């Protein structure tokens, strides 16, 4: 399967629910599939990074810097709840990061844009 087809499948399958978007986004990042994760990013995050090339470069640098410390990390979607602090439909996704020797928790915001859900960073 080509990367473009994989990205398309990830993108189309992910828009069923906020949880599916979060899981597809996390999987794309875990696989370093920046094209798929870019397609799942909300518009404001895409604008902040200016272009796919910039997004890809930033992600490659993050991997270079963080990889040794995060080797074997697993990220799991723990809970999905409506974001009560937003006027537009959005969800807070609770994440568990398991590093083997330590566990920490984080959140990811998933927003609705043009009838589809997209990953949009921290609430």
Q: Can you offer a commentary on this structure?
A:
- By secondary structure, this protein is an alpha+beta fold.
- Helices cover 47% and strands 27% of the residues.
- It has helices spanning 3-14, 18-30, 34-40, 43-49, 52-70; strands spanning 74-82, 90-98, 103-113, 116-119.
- α1 (3-14) runs antiparallel to α2, α1 (3-14) runs parallel beside α3 and α2 runs antiparallel to α3.
- It is globular.
Topology:
Elements: H1 3-14, H2 18-30, H3 34-40, H4 43-49, H5 52-70, E1 74-82, E2 90-98, E3 103-113, E4 116-119
Antiparallel strand pairs: 1-2, 2-3, 3-4
Helix pairs in contact: 1-2, 1-3, 2-3
List keywords for this structure.
47% helix; 27% strand; globular; four-stranded antiparallel sheet; alpha+beta; 5 helices; 123 residues; single chain
Major sheet summary line: 4 strands, antiparallel
Cα-to-Cα separation, first versus last residue: 35 Å
**Which runs of at least 5 residues are low in confidence (pLDDT < 50)?**
none
Query: Which strand order spans the largest sheet, edge to edge or round the barrel?
Result: 1-2-3-4
Write down the secondary-structure element order. Answer: HHHHHEEEE
Helical percent range? 40-55%
Q: Average pLDDT, to the nearest integer?
A: 83
Radius of gyration, rounded? 14 Å
How many individual β-strands?
4
The number of helical elements comes to 5
